[in-house]
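Thread title: Can someone regenerate the structure for this chain?

I was given the following input by a collaborator and told the matching structure tokens would be attached. They weren't. Posting the sequence so someone can regenerate them.
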Amino acid sequence: MAVRLTPNILRAAAKWAVENRLGPAEIRKGPGIVEGARLQTKTATGVLKIAVRTSLEREVGLMCDPKGTWKTIPKMDLVVVAVPSAEDLEAAEIFAFDPNVVIKVFDAALKKRRPGNPHFYKAPTFVALDEDRRKRSTSSLAGLKEKAEWRAVVPIDKTMKPKSSGAETTGDFIERVKREFAELNRIDVSKVVVEFRILA
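Best answer:
Regenerated them for you:
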């Protein structure tokens, strides 16, 4: 039975691909950061900071601020995108990009989106990885995968599912729910409020 791909599994596949290519990678944690969305690895020239993006639709989505400055990506040394393989239902496809290349492509996409839209920054901008997948992309600059520095295909099995590192506190659970809800609905996590009530 084929494994159902999820963002968590795609992030695990991205980490596997990074480690296979660059050596041991450490997951960086922080407020509002989804587990596995930031990695770092040591190279001969220092620490490499990596942003991991996932998409079940084979597209890349980025958020920007009201001034049009992209969040996160300018501070990274590498952008890794993990998506379902276009040819194998039981594999993930991993693409690695130079952040400056990604920014250039998304700047062009944002320029098309800005005119007459003062709230352009409140929703992600999407660019398709494949030339024929433009359905939900806000840019016609499809074919982003051709600009990748390297690519890897990672077979998926149940052993790649992320394992819990320990007991989850109530606060951790709430933060995880917020992050996953934001990711599923393609909005910034800062826009999500979660409230649980215990009925007596």
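The mean pLDDT is 82.
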